[in-house]
Every structure is written in C-alpha cells, then in structure tokens.
Specification:
This protein folds into 3 domains: 119 residues, HUPs (Rossmann fold), CATH 3.40.50; 114 residues, Alpha Horseshoe (Serine Threonine Protein Phosphatase 5, Tetratricopeptide repeat); 162 residues, DNA Cyclobutane Dipyrimidine Photolyase, subunit A, domain 3, CATH 1.10.579.10. The protein is globular and about 80 Å long. Helix 6 packs across helix 11, helix 10 packs antiparallel against helix 11 and helix 14 crosses helix 16. Strand 4, helix 5 and strand 5 form a beta-alpha-beta unit. The chain contains 19 helices and 5 strands. It is mainly alpha-helical. The protein binds flavin-adenine dinucleotide. Flavin-adenine dinucleotide (FAD) binds next to helix 9, helix 11, helix 14 and helix 16. This is Deoxyribodipyrimidine photo-lyase. Pfam families: DNA_photolyase, FAD_binding_7. Keywords: Chromophore, FAD, Flavoprotein, Lyase.
C-alpha cells in the first residue's frame, strides 16, 4: 500500500517536542514532509534574525535526519505547488496570530482550497491562544493584571505528547538550509531545540531562585534569556509552564515571577490579536494630539541614540549591548525606549523599528506593546507621568557600574558608580565619551507639558 504525504509547514515552531501540529500530521498516518518557506516579506528585514533563523533551521534539519525542505517565494504559491508535487492533500500548521501571519495564512488556505486541499491549524505559539481569555462579559482584557489572573485561572493543556516514531518523507528537492546565512557568531550560537532545552534546564536548576530578586539587574545577567528560543519556537511556553508547575516549590517567588513574565508575552499577543492595527499605531487614542519632534536635528539625535552615544551611560550601554549581542536586558529596553520617546520626543514606532531590526528575539507583539507601554499609548491605564530617569535607573540597577564598564569602554577608567556620572569627575571625558545630547530634567518638564496639553485637547 502506498503511504500518502502530509506537509508540516513550519514557521515560529522550529522544534519536535510539544508540537501539536506535528502530532496532528503524524496522527494522519501519512509520511510527514517538514517544510520551511523563505518568505521574502519576512526575510527582508532584521538581518540578525534571518541569520539566527538559518541556524535554528539547520538544527531542525539535523533533528529530522535531513528531511527538512526549504523553498523560497510567496507561501501562497509555494505550498500549493509543493502539495501538488508530492501529492499531499493537507498542510499542517501551528495557528499564526500576528497581523501579517493571519493575512498570509488566509491567502494560503484559499489557494489550497481552490486546489481541493486543506490547511489544518493546530495549537498556537502560546500556552493560551490569543482571543481566548475573556472577561465575564466576553470582552477582551485591556489591562495586564486582570488578564494575568484570568489567564492563570483559565489554565492551559499539558504539553503535547511525543508523536512516537515520525515517518519523515524524504527525497524532495529544496534549497540549502543555510543559503544566505552565515553560521557562527553571536546571532547563531546556541540555536535549536536541544540548546533551548539545555538553557531552560540550566536556568531551572541554577537561576530561578536568584531570578525573583535580581531579574532587574543587567550587571548580573540573571534572567533566563529564553526569549530568543521562544521567538523561533524552539521551545513551547507550555513546556516551560509545566516544568514550573512541577518545581519542588511551585509557590516560590522565582516560579511565580517567571510565570508572570510569560503571561506578559501572552497578554501582548492577545492585545495584538484584538487590535492588529496596534502593531505600528497607537493602541489608545487619548494621546493622538501629542506632538512629536522630527526633522534633521531630531534625526541626528535619534542616530546618536541608535549608536549608543547620547552621553547618558546607562542608555548608551543598553544600545550598544543591542548592537553587539542582538539582545538587551528588559530594564534597559524600558530606559532606552523612555529616553527616545520622552527625552527626545520621538514617536515610538521609530524606536520599535530599530529594535526589530537588531533584536534576535524581535517579536511584533512584545516589541510594539513594550514600546507602547513605555510611550503611554498602550495598555497601561495612567502612565503619562512615568518618565525613567536614566541616571537614577543606572545607579539603582547597576549599583557598582559594572554594566557600564562592560559596554562603554570610554568610561572603563571610572571606578564603581562613578561610571554613571562622568560629568562629576575631572577625567570623566578623558577617553572620548560624548557629552549629554539633552538635559534630562529639562526634557522631562517638556514631555510632561506636552502630555498635559494633549490630554486636555482630547
Ligand atoms: P525573562 O526575564 O527571563 O523572562 C522570561 C520570558 O518571559 C521571556 O523570555 C519573554 O518571553 C517573557 N517576557 C518577559 N518580560 C516580558 C515583557 N515585558 N513582555 C513580554 N514578554 C516578556 N520581548 C520579546 O520577546 N521580543 C521583543 O521584541 C521585545 N521587545 C521589547 C521592547 C520593549 C520596549 C520592552 C520594554 C520590552 C520588550 N520585550 C520583548 C520584553 C522583554 O524585555 C524581553 O522578553 C526580555 O528582556 C527577554 O529576556 P529574557 O528571556 O531573559 O527574559
């Protein structure tokens, strides 16, 4: 008897464990052809992410014994063609929830259906799929704390059972997996499901306890660094939540804190699902009258921000970490975003674009809504007065100045917290560190005045 073929179209789910769509494909009784479509819309930006993607795909290709097939082009053309080539009637996917992913999948579904085939979506990249957690009245949540309470009360299924032996379909032509990407370097190290599970297990064993107390300290590197693995779906958040629930002390501060952080990821995905337009526009319209600066002078200031040369050491250290590592500590994401929006008076999408271009964990939901949370245009109820002081934040969360000296070599000669305030030391600028591009106290006053006027005009 000839066995048919089911296609497993992989996107943000580059793993084999806890993979409901893979289980569905295997349960069909057919051979499974794993496919990744290099969609030019997605690979045109975020060069580091494209490189990281290549490394993750290479790891997945190894895990499938080389069965993974790469094809390039518009998925709405590539998949019907491939399905026809291998005689597949079904394409299995993990349900996509981003605005572009939803539009693209609708087009692919239509193209397959027109050919008498089906797109079958099983599971999502989240513990609870966006659009599911609702208020009693059936409305979506707009604020994080009640959402996270309802999300925990809703609960999530156990990780998907291992699919047993997968019969991979082989002998199908494709492009080389690493075509166009360079292996090695910071963007590609530690990629793949095995690396994700090892990192997670190491963090559970050695990092969780410190996490609750020290997660805000960029100098100590105490967070899980799981965001990059989650972005490519090398691990499913449900696997992480199941491990946290099995922890010997499930009510410990570390377990509770990490669960809450994962809830933030789910909340942002839910908000974007409800409001697809909020990917690049203000979610709340209360501040639409707020004037932002633009033009050549502002453009130069923005460039200084991008390069980590604002003259504010904590901001600059964060921006340089982003360029060097493709990752930035959450505290710094908040402080640098606040600096762009509230000290330079620049609309948040400019910064969100820069982050997405350089973050290995760049994620449209968490990035745009992280930015909007800081900018005061997002889900937080009354954040307009929250303006991070870049010097106080640095002294508080990097008390010995170690994080500054790690990323800003021009300040390495200043001992301890002195690195946060070179202007207070006679030799502070001896090694070429730039003067401050704006006066924070003055820009803070200006920001508050603009916000107040915009609120009154609304
Ligand atoms: P941990 O502290 O170890 O947290 C564990 C996991 O919880 C993370 O991997 C992440 O999946 C989730 N998480 C933690 N904090 C948040 C948060 N505030 N919002 C959403 N999820 C969270 N996160 C991204 O994954 N991609 C982005 O593009 C992104 N852009 C951001 C932009 C701004 C302006 C801000 C303020 C935050 C952004 N975040 C983003 C959220 C957060 O900064 C990162 O998830 C976190 O720093 C990743 O490091 P970690 O894995 O060590 O985090």
């Amino acid at each position: 008897m000839t066995v048919g073929v089911s296609i497993l179209w992989l996107r943000r789910d580059l793993r084999l464990h806890d993979h409901p769509a893979l289980v569905a494909a295997v349960d069909s009784g057919e051979e499974v052809l794993p496919v990744f479509v290099r969609d030019p819309v997605l690979t045109a930006s975020g060069g580091v992410r494209v490189q990281r993607l290549g490394a993750s795909l290479a790891a997945l290709s190894d895990a499938t014994g080389g069965a993974l097939v790469m094809r390039g082009g518009d998925p709405a053309d590539v998949l019907p063609e491939l399905a026809s080539e291998v005689g597949a009637t079904t394409v299995h996917v993990t349900r996509e929830t981003t605005p572009y992913g939803r539009r693209r999948d609708a087009r692919v579904r239509d193209a397959l259906v027109a050919d008498g085939r089906a797109l079958v979506a099983t599971g999502t990249p989240y513990a609870v799929g966006p659009g599911i957690v609702r208020t009693r009245a059936g409305a979506p949540y707009q604020v994080f704390t009640p959402y996270s309470q309802a999300w925990r009360a809703h609960g999530w299924p156990a990780p998907a059972a291992a699919p047993g032996r997968v019969r991979w379909a082989t002998g199908v032509d494709g492009d080389p997996v690493l075509d166009g990407t360079r292996p090695g370097g910071v963007a590609t190290s530690g990629a793949g499901e095995r690396a994700a599970l090892e990192r997670w297990e190491g963090f559970l064993a050695d990092g969780l306890e410190r996490y609750a107390i020290e997660r805000d300290r960029p100098d100590l590197d105490t967070t899980s660094r799981m965001s990059v693995h989650l972005t490519y779906g090398e691990i499913h958040p449900r696997t992480m939540l199941a491990d946290l629930a099995r922890h010997p002390c499930p009510s410990s501060a570390g377990v509770q804190r990490l669960t809450t952080e994962l809830a933030w990821r789910e909340f942002h995905a839910d908000v974007l699902w409800q409001h697809p337009g909020s990917a690049w526009r203000d979610l709340r319209t209360t501040l639409t009258a707020l004037p932002y600066d633009e033009g050549p002078v502002t453009g130069e200031l923005v460039e200084r921000w991008r390069q980590g040369r604002t003259g504010y050491p904590f901001v600059d250290a964060g921006m340089r970490q982003l360029l060097a590592e493709g990752w930035m500590h959450n505290r710094l994401r908040m402080v640098t975003a606040s600096f762009l929006v509230k000290d330079l008076h620049v609309w948040w999408p400019t910064g969100a674009r820069h982050f997405l271009d350089h973050l290995l964990d760049g994620d449209i939901a968490s990035n745009s809504h992280g930015w909007q949370w800081v900018a005061g245009t997002g889900t937080d109820a009354s954040p307009w007065f929250r303006i991070f002081n870049p010097v106080d934040q640095g002294k508080r969360f990097d008390p010995a100045g170690d994080y500054i000296r790690r990323w800003v070599p021009e300040l390495a000669h200043l001992d301890g917290p002195a690195a946060h305030e070179p202007w207070r030391h006679p030799d502070g600028y001896a090694h070429g560190y730039p003067e401050r591009i704006v006066d924070h106290a003055e820009e803070r006053r200006e920001s508050l005045a603009r916000y107040e006027r915009a609120r009154q005009e609304k």
